[in-house]
Q: What sequence folds into this?
């Protein structure tokens, strides 16, 4: 079970060539489309969106900015 929710920052774990996206690219979840599917916005360093893609949870890595001791809180 993934705990991905809107506004989470994620990274691709696999290429999405149909969208011109490579593994490692970082995006923000903008909507939950289904139990394990999310609409992700990919933006450049200046905040301009360059791609939107429906991505399944098995192709996403949830990025965390807090130490593990506080990440579950």
A:
């Amino acid at each position: 079970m993934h705990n991905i929710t809107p506004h989470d920052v994620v990274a691709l774990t696999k290429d999405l060539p149909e969208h011109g996206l490579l593994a490692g690219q970082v995006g923000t979840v903008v909507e939950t489309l289904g139990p394990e599917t999310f609409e992700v916005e990919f933006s450049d360093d200046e905040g301009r969106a360059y791609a939107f893609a429906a991505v399944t949870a098995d192709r996403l890595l949830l990025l965390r900015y807090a130490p593990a001791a506080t990440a579950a809180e």
Summary: The chain has a mean pLDDT of 92. The first strand starts at residue 9 and ends at 12. Helices lie at 68-71. Residues 68-71 form the longest helix (4 residues).
